[in-house]
Amino acid sequence: MPAARPHIEPRRVPTADSVVVKEIYLSLQGESSHAGLLCAFIRLTGCHLRCTYCDSEFAFHGGNRRKNADIVTEILALNTPAVEVTGGEPLLQPGVYPLMESLLDAGLKVLLETSGAIDVRLVPPAVHKIVDMKTPSSGECDRNDYRNLVSMNANDELKLVIGSREDYEWSRALITEHKLGSKPYSVLCSTIFDKLHPRELAEWIIEDRLPVRFQLQMHKYLWDPNARGV
């Protein structure tokens, strides 16, 4: 594995009452164990990674700063029991922690989509964290913060996005070395859309009896893979 670069430490500021939002929309959850369920999405602006397969580059810049209270009001008006906070990389914004707490206080099931590059230890335990540990073809594998492997709890899911046999073998080694099959959280494996046929990944998992959940990015099959707000 490449030597890790210095990590960005998570920063929670309880008084932070706003975040920069790129978009808010209602759709179906496209992946994770919550796939297929109605879900609101809050996409925050900004990311320090530049993954080769990124499908949300439009979220690197722009957006509007909004009060957390106003965001919660808008989400409740969408009349859905679940909301996902995503990006970009949402944990770059200190105000995201109070936002997630406010969403939980409002009675919502809260999901967080985050890279594996920032330790999730400060995220409220009730949040369902989906941690995208970067594989070699992302170009950002050396950004992974392996503290996440012990910071995650039974609510959470570790995601591995695989675009090649090298990515698969790296993922298999990670699962074996860290005994991820015995962790309280699930491990999800999916392919980079249009880079590796899902059947190939499925066959590798079956051959190795890998203790993971195979998944597809369902939203990319339902709608244009490059579409926004889905």
UniProtKB/TrEMBL annotation:
Keywords: 4Fe-4S, Iron, Iron-sulfur, Lyase, Magnesium, Metal-binding, Queuosine biosynthesis, S-adenosyl-L-methionine. It catalyses: 6-carboxy-5,6,7,8-tetrahydropterin + H(+) = 7-carboxy-7-carbaguanine + NH4(+). [4Fe-4S] cluster binds at residues 47, 51, 54. InterPro entries: 7-CO-7-deazaguanine_synth-like, Aldolase_TIM, rSAM, rSAM_sf. GO terms for molecular function: 4 iron, 4 sulfur cluster binding; carbon-nitrogen lyase activity; magnesium ion binding; S-adenosyl-L-methionine binding. Its cofactor is S-adenosyl-L-methionine; Mg(2+); [4Fe-4S] cluster. Catalyzes the complex heterocyclic radical-mediated conversion of 6-carboxy-5,6,7,8-tetrahydropterin (CPH4) to 7-carboxy-7-deazaguanine (CDG), a step common to the biosynthetic pathways of all 7-deazapurine-containing compounds. Belongs to the radical SAM superfamily. 7-carboxy-7-deazaguanine synthase family. This is 7-carboxy-7-deazaguanine synthase.
